[in-house]
Design a protein that fits this description.
There is one protein chain. Helix content is 21%, strand content 22%. It is an alpha/beta fold. Strands 4-5-6-7-9-8 form a 6-stranded mixed beta sheet, covered by helices on one side. The chain has a 5-stranded mixed beta sheet with strand order 3-2-1-12-13, with no helix packed on it. A two-stranded antiparallel ribbon has the order 10-11. Helix 2 (56-66) links the parallel strand 2 (44-46) and strand 3 (73-75). Helix 1 packs parallel to helix 2 (56-66), helix 2 (56-66) crosses helix 3 and helix 4 (129-140) runs parallel beside helix 6. The chain is globular. The protein binds fe (ii) ion. The site of fe (ii) ion has 8 residues, from loops.
Length: 264
């Protein structure tokens, strides 16, 4: 199975610019690009911050842009989103019994778990008792290897201003997945607006640039120095799943550098 992962689309009311870039246009360009270049992708995943201010018109734009995607689209909220407005514009989106936008899907041989870490009014991620119970049940009810999708990382990534707004309840989260860590074969997250990969407690993780604006790479600034922004080029990822492999390619879809043969 092949799917597309993109994140942090940050659409705004009226379709105008945000930080000197146009999120509506950037997302349209991403969709147009993968529809042409990855027509065999079977799903699209967007790991939160669908909109910047949670405005109704921004979700309306998202729905319109995604209407041309001829494959299932799986959304989760980020800290910039409004869960209630997402439900207004995507009424068929799946929620758990407590109203959180979280659900599971079979992705080939894997169980894809989509986790909601949004908490209204705050930038950091929240993992409450209800979400802990839900996540543990999903892990316990399956024997498949797991792909875990969430907006906020549950471990530090070294950019201190962003680490200050990662998932707040790290210990309860680690308790919830205790005993299942070896089945979590890839964690996908958003929030950071940078390409980062590695592993945490042997769980491989991956994230990438947003489709509009990025967080500048600064591993030295203090947490209270503010989040450094930068208009680096956007990305989406192409994820290929097989029993043996999780293969992730990153596409800089606006890159126009020349192509040439490397043969002498
Ligand atoms: Fe974001």
């Amino acid at each position: 199975m092949k799917f597309i992962h993109l994140t942090d689309t940050h659409l705004i009311e009226g379709g105008g610019d945000l930080y000197g870039s146009n999120p509506n246009q950037r997302l349209r360009q991403a969709v147009a690009h993968f529809m042409v270049h990855q027509p065999d992708a079977e799903a699209l995943v967007i790991t939160g911050d669908l909109t910047h201010y949670g405005e109704a018109d921004a979700y309306k734009q998202l729905r319109e842009i995604l209407s041309v995607v001829n494959k299932p689209v799986y959304l989760i909220p980020g800290n910039h989103d409004r869960r209630d407005v997402i439900k207004d514009y995507f009424p068929s989106i799946e929620c758990d019994e407590n109203g959180f936008i979280q659900y599971t899907k079979d992705f080939g041989d894997y169980l894809a778990i989509f986790l909601d870490t949004n908490e209204p009014g705050v930038s950091w991620g929240v993992f409450c008792e209800q979400r802990s119970t839900w996540l543990r049940k999903q892990l316990a009810d399956s024997t498949k290897p797991v792909l875990l999708f969430m907006h906020h990382p549950f471990f530090p990534i070294g950019i201190h201003s962003m680490d200050a707004i990662s998932l707040r309840e790290t210990a309860p989260f680690l308790d919830a997945i205790k005993g299942f860590e070896s089945r979590i074969q890839q964690v996908f997250f958003g929030h950071i607006h940078r390409p980062i990969t590695g592993s945490y407690r042997k769980m491989p993780f991956f994230t990438l640039k947003g489709t509009n604006h990025q967080v500048a790479l600064d591993l030295h600034a203090e947490a209270d120095a503010g989040i450094p922004g930068r208009l680096e080029a956007p990305q989406y990822a192409i994820v290929c799943l097989s029993q043996e492999q999780i293969l992730i390619h990153v596409e800089d879809y606006l890159d126009e550098s020349p192509r040439f043969s490397l043969k002498g």
